[in-house]
Structure formats: C-alpha cells, structure tokens
Task: inverse folding
C-alpha cells in the first residue's frame, strides 16, 4: 500500500517539475529570438553599428546603409550580418567589392547577433532611409567653430595629459608619426587619418571603438568627446606632415647615433678612470696581503 502511494506522487510530480523548469527557462530563451521594436533597434544600431555606418549622409568606415535593402536582397544581407567574415571567405564577389571599397577593413561579427535582430535592424534601416538623415553622435560633435588642437591631442596620445576615464595612454600600445615611438601591441597610427576615412568617421570610431582590443579597453572607460576630437586633430596633423616623415626619421637615427656614441665614450671614460683605479687598488691590496703572508 505504502509503496503504491509514493509511486503515484512521483508520477504526478514529474510533469509538474518539467512545467516549472520550462516556465523558468522561457524568459531566458524568448528575448534572444524576439524581434526588436523600433526604439530598441535604434539603440542597438547606435551602440553596435554607428561607429562604422551612417544611414544617409555618406560612407564612414563601412558603406552608407541608406537604401541598402534595395541594393542587395534581404536574405544576403542577413547572412552577411550574421557572419561577415564567412561570407567574405566564401569569395562572394559583392562582399569582396564592399571590402575593397572599405580599404580592406572587415566588418566584425557583432556578438549576440541573431536572425531576428538582423531582420529588425533591416526594418529600422529601411524606415530611416525613407525618413530623416542620420543624426549620428558625430553630427553634434563636428561643430566647426572649435579650432583644431593637435597639441592637446599629442599630450593625450603620449600620456602627458591622463585620460579622464583613466584608460591607459595610447602610446603604451601605439606608435605615431615623427618621434612618437610607443608600444607595438596596436598598429602604428601615423596614417590612421586616411586609413579610417577622415574626421567624421574617425571621430565615430574613437567614440565607441569596434575592434576587439580597443573595445575591451575603452568600453568601460570611453574617451570624452573633447579627447576624441583632439586626438582626431592630432591624427589629421600627422597626415598633413607626411613629407616630414623622412626628415624626422633622419633625426631619430642621428640622435640614436649621437647619444649612442656619446654613451660609449662616457662609459669608456668611466671605466678607464674610476673603475680601473678601484680595480687596481683592490689588486694592490691583494698583493700586499699575499706579501704579508708570504
Ligand atoms: C568595424 C566597423 C563596422 C561595424 C561595427 C559594423 N559594420 Fe557593417 N560593414 C562594415 C564594412 C567595412 C562593410 C563592407 C564590407 C566589409 O569590408 O566587410 C560593412 C558592410 C555592411 C553591410 C552591407 C552594406 C552594403 O552596402 O551592402 C550591412 C548591411 C552592414 N554592414 C550592417 C551592419 C550592421 C547592422 C551593424 C551593426 C550591428 C554593422 N554593420 C556594424 C563595417 C562595420
Ligand atoms: C592596451 C593597448 C591599447 C591602448 C592603450 C590603445 N590601443 Fe588602439 N589598438 C590596440 C590594438 C591591439 C588595436 C588593433 C585592433 C584591436 O585589436 O582592437 C588597436 C587599434 C586602434 C585603431 C585602429 C587602427 C587601424 O589602423 O585600424 C585606432 C584608431 C586606435 N587603436 C586608436 C587608439 C587611441 C587613440 C588610443 C588612446 C586613446 C588607443 N588606441 C589606445 C591597442 C591599444
């Protein structure tokens, strides 16, 4: 009798358990596959795409996405957004053409991208294409009244002015034009102004860097608008002083030679003078010691 009773209760509880677990998992699963509403799509775009794309107003690092759905079919675009690198690797001629137009820059796979999000983004891009021109972060920032300040930019780059949100100075990982020799973890930035497409594009790039290392360094401690602008001023100055590169490299070589040769001379004098005297006096003491014993 007793065993029979426990059997019935466990049979009743099993589907109940499954139901409870299922209900608990539901909210975990549903947001991932749910499409975004317009507001969410706008936020998502601003956060993950605006560093490289505008919707109307010209190309930045990536192409202007205005009317993209009339240039290419949706299925292709969704496939591309889910795995840009994969589509490029497959040798797709349209993707290769896009990459060429972007100076070889490759679109990164956006973490957490799903078919539903991609679809919502295309809807959003479509409605923005019909409506007003993109008011990306950069538009307000590009106020032409502020004079360029490459000197302030140079201080930020080299760490003389610490970054407001306490990220490490650029020079710990990057070299720049002229005598700005820094770390080699990141690429040399002396030609970055033209490589990343000029003021506006670079400004947007720096406001929320999209590449893996830069994103992890600057997502928590982002550059302020002023810092980003002054750095862009510096990078623009570097692009203008291209002709001087040769000369400043020459100066570097000369100074290394000068200080190098000077250093050898100084250390030679040091050895010949002070050091040898110490050496001799130690030897003399040893000789005396041996004499005393002998
Ligand atoms: C690191 C910069 C970067 C980011 C961030 C980025 N893209 Fe791109 N995107 C590119 C580049 C560059 C291309 C051109 C193809 C290539 O070189 O990979 C491109 C191409 C595209 C295309 C095809 C454009 C066309 O003309 O057919 C679409 C659509 C697109 N991106 C959407 C997005 C969306 C949506 C996001 C945000 C979720 C995003 N991209 C984030 C750089 C970026
Ligand atoms: C901890 C090291 C580190 C620091 C600090 C750092 N960077 Fe970077 N940066 C990188 C790396 C690595 C890359 C290569 C792309 C990646 O992996 O993010 C990069 C890429 C870049 C690029 C893209 C260059 C290109 O040609 O594609 C720019 C622009 C840039 N960094 C600017 C800056 C600026 C401006 C600062 C200072 C405010 C800075 N970085 C500080 C490591 C760093």
Result:
């Amino acid at each position: 009798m007793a065993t029979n009773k426990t059997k019935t209760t466990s049979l009743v509880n099993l589907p109940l358990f499954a139901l409870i677990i299922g209900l608990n998992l539901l909210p975990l699963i549903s947001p991932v596959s749910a499409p975004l509403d317009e507001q969410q799509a706008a936020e998502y775009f601003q956060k993950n795409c605006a560093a490289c794309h505008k919707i109307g107003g010209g190309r930045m690092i990536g192409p202007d996405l205005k009317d993209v759905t009339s240039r290419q079919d949706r299925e292709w675009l969704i496939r591309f957004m889910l795995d840009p690198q994969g589509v490029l690797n497959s040798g797709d001629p349209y993707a290769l053409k896009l990459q060429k137009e972007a100076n070889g820059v490759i679109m990164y796979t956006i973490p957490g991208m799903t078919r539903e999000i991609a679809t919502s983004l295309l809807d959003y891009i479509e409605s923005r294409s019909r409506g007003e021109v993109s008011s990306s972060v950069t538009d307000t920032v590009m106020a032409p009244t502020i004079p360029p300040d490459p000197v302030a930019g140079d201080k930020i780059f080299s760490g003389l002015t610490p970054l407001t949100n306490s990220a490490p100075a650029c020079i710990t990982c990057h070299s720049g034009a002229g005598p700005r020799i820094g770390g080699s973890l990141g690429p040399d930035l002396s030609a970055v102004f033209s490589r990343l497409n000029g003021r506006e594009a670079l400004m947007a790039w720096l406001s929320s860097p999209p590449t893996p290392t830069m994103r992890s360094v600057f997502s928590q401690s982002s550059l302020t608008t002023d810092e980003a602008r002054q750095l862009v001023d510096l990078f623009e100055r570097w692009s203008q002083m291209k002709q001087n590169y040769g000369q400043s490299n020459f100066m570097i070589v000369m100074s290394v030679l000068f200080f190098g040769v000077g250093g050898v001379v100084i250390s030679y004098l040091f050895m010949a003078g002070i050091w040898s005297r110490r050496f001799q006096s130690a030897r003399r003491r040893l000789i005396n010691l041996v004499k005393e014993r002998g």
